[in-house]
Sequence to fold (376 residues):
Amino acid sequence: MAAPNIRTVGVPKEIKNNEYRVAMTPDGVREFERLGVDVFVETGAGAGASFSDADYVAAGADIVPTAADAWAQEMVVKVKEPQDDEFRFLRADLTLFTYLHLAAYPIVAKALIESRCTGLAYETVQLDTGALPLLAPMSEVAGRLAPQIGAHYLERHNGGRGVLMGGAPGVQPAKVVVLGAGNVGWNSAWIAAGMEAEVVLFDKNLDRLRWVDQINKGRIVTLASNRGALERNIADADLVIGAVLVAGGRAPVVVTEDMVRTMKHGAVIVDVAIDQGGCIETIHETAHDEPVYELHGVLHYAVGNMPGAVPHTSTYALTNATLPYQLEVAMHGAAGASRRDTALSHGLNTYAGQVTNAPVAEFLGTPFIEPLAALN
Fold:
């Protein structure tokens, strides 16, 4: 077996507001250790996801007492983008592999560029088919959470209209409008339909809508996205779920403030696209401790780390997807892995002070250099 290029990996505790996920399960640690890579886990990093320090030690990890100890390793794997207090740990000889969402968090991009840190973003790792394999599992979790959260806030004592998602015999169910038929939107529509709501799913991709229609056999109404159809359905909705994604770039605004003004008093918006800036004009990011605000009589939910609400499930789903790519980077280094695997080259967002992802560079207004050119 070839010696790994990266010999130490750090797993710090997440410090974003109410973020309970952790970047690696104990089973993930076992895979790294099997390949000769030492994993250093900050004490308590897995507690929120129901993994104890003892679980990590049993898998072969070293438990370290501080965040600085975890960040001192050659590669750091995380869940969320570095927070302000973590910028001091960024450095030129560090490879950071996490969700970055730099179009939504330009201050993080600035910190990565200035530190010359190698930044690999889960959300822009992209297969030749266009699929986003490391975004998919959290999109699926967030999509399945969205109707559950919407149902909660539709309850009257939570500020909503007092509408039951599935209605009752002789009573009309809630109308749920889902914007986007990708992984988030499809899962949202599927769960909402399972709750027996009336579901309308919008997308510009007619082939995707055909696929949804074939799978659901008419249980979900599929509509081509255009301004007139959106205006009519948004005005009549009890719950609107934003699920529009542009890989690496900012989500487009699909629902204008004027549309929000037409919505019913006590209706709910859940904008899952908030990680990419949101697709509702009236949205701004919230956190789990204060997840909603009211504007124009409509409750807005825009938590930027929705899957953090179910961290045990989310951590397993995340590790299942990210682990093979993390191991690839550990064995060959960020540069070698990016040269070997086109999907990982798309994931390279910053390298040696340069922005190496085109949509990110365009949104930030910074020069773009092809990832393989930057590596040479």
About this structure: The first helix runs from residue 26 to 34.
